[in-house]
Amino acid sequence: MAITKQQFIHKLEHCLCPPGDGVFTVNTAKERKDALRTKLYGQTEGVDALWKTSLTDIEQSEHKAVILGISSDCGGGILRGANWGPLFLRSTLIEQHPQVNAFDLGDVRVIPHLLHDKYLNDATISNCQKALYQNSNSDYYVSPLSITEDVCDGFYQQHPNKGIFGIGGDHSISYPLTKSYLKAKRDEGKRTAIIHFDAHTDLLVERLGIDLCFGSWCTHILEFLPAPHHLIQFGIRSSGKDKAHWESTFGVKQHWAHEIREQGADAIVKQVIAQLKTDNVDELYVSFDIDALDEEFASATGTPEGNGMTPDEALTILRALREEFPITGADMMEIAPFTDSSLVGQTSSETTLREGAKISAFLIDAMNNA
C-alpha cells in the first residue's frame, strides 16, 4: 500500500534509530558509539534530534546510496556477534575510506530475541509494540526482518532512484533487503540479478524448522527473481552436497571457490557477464557474506572457512560486473568484530573490518555512480 512522504518519515522515526545505536545496550561499546556520533554529527549529545531532522533530507541528498544498519544476529546460530557489524563497519569506512559518502538512514530498532513477526503470537507482538513504540496496538512491526522489509518497501516507493546499502548482522537480513529490492525493480519493469558472495549456498528450505534464517534466505527470494539462475553465487566451498545438486534442484548458477582459483577470476566473470547479457539483465544487487573470503582475510565472522576467495579475486569480479551493469543495491553481512582470534601483527577483527570496508566502499561508490 502506497504511503505519503510524511507517513514514511514518521515510520522511520519510530522503527529506526540513529546510526550505530541498533544494538540495545546501556554501557557496552559506549565509547565506540560516541566516537561514531562525533564523526557523523560533531557531538555525542542530542544526536536523536539531529538524526530525525536529517530524515527529511533524503531526497535532497546527492548520493544514490543510502546506508541502513540491521544489528540482528538472531537468524544466525553458529557463532553470534554479527549484530555489532553496523557500528564497527561504519567507523572503519569513515576512518579508512573518507572519500566514500552515502546518506545514512540509521539502524533498525532491534529486539534481539526476535526474527520475523510471523513467528510471534498476538500477545507477544502487542507486548513488543508497547516496548518499542509505547503503544500495544501500533501499526508497526516489531521483528528485525519484518521492520526491514516494511521500511525498504516504503523507501523504494518514495525514492525509486536511490538504493539501500544494508549492513548486517547475520545473512537472514538479506531476505527482506533483496525481497524489497526485487519487488520494486519488478514493478519498474527492470530485469535484475542477485550476485551472492558466500562460502555457503544458503539454499536450505528451512533450518531446524525455521524457514527464514542465514542458511535459507536465498531459497525464499528465488520466486521474486525473473528466473532462478539470476541468483549467481561466488565462493561456495562449505556444503554437504555438490554443485550439481544445488544447480539442478534450485536452478541457480554457482562458481565455487576452487573454480575461481583454478580458472582465474577474470575467466569466471567473463562467463557471468555473458550469461547476464543473454538474460537481458538491467541491474544488479550484490549480497556479500564476508566468509566468502578465505579465513586468512575474514576470520571475525560466525563461520570462517578456509580455501576461500581473496579480496583481490572478489574485487576483480565486482569491477568487471560494474563496467557492464549498474549495481543499484548491495549489502555486507556477517562481520562479527568481537569474535576475535590473534593474527600476526594485528587482530582478526581489524583484518576482517579492513577487507569488509574495502569491498563496502567499492559497492557504495558503484551505487552512487550507477
Automatic annotation (TrEMBL):
Binds 2 manganese ions per subunit. Keywords: Hydrolase, Manganese, Metal-binding. Its EC number is 3.5.3.11. Its cofactor is Mn(2+). PROSITE patterns: ARGINASE_2. One of its GO terms (molecular function) is metal ion binding. Pfam families: Arginase. Mn(2+) binds at H171, D198, H200, D202, D289, D291. The keyword Metal-binding applies. GO terms for biological process: putrescine biosynthetic process from arginine, via agmatine. Belongs to the arginase family. This is Agmatinase. It comes from Pseudoalteromonas holothuriae.
